[in-house]
Amino acid sequence: MSVNEYEASVVIKSGAELLLSASSDPRSDEGYAGVKANMAAALELMAQALENFEAGVSGPNRSTGWVQDLRRVADDLGEK
């Protein structure tokens, strides 16, 4: 499957909206631990993507702090 960065970002946004909706009535057999693990992995991948985008942009890099924050939250979610 090949998509561009904008299309991929729409998928992420849609997934977040679905997760928000599902969280109001949780019914998964996987439980919260599985949700946290998936969210941690997704946040780490988003941090990597943000780093990739910033590497191609000249000028001040505001996203460095955001990347660190995403990784911090991913680490916290991933802790058992």
The first-to-last residue Cα distance is: 33 Å
User: Based on helices, strands and strand pairing, what is the structural class?
Assistant: mainly alpha
Contiguous helical run count: 3
**Beta-strand segment tally:** 0
Low-confidence runs (pLDDT<50, min 5 residues)?
Answer: none
**Into how many domains do the coordinates divide?**
1
The percent range for helix content is over 70%
Question: What profile does the largest beta sheet have?
Answer: none
Strand portion = under 5%
The average pLDDT value, as a whole number, equals 87
Radius of gyration: 15 Å
In sequence order, what are the helices and strands, one letter per element? HHH
Shape: globular
Looking at how many chains there are and whether they match, the oligomeric state comes to single chain
Could you walk me through the main structural features you see in this protein, from its secondary elements to its overall organization?
The chain has 80 residues and is mainly α. It has one domain. Helices cover 75% and strands 0% of the residues. It has helices spanning 5-23, 31-55, 63-78. Helix 2 (31-55) runs antiparallel to helix 3 (63-78). The longest helix has 25 residues, at 31-55. The N and C termini lie far apart (33 Å).
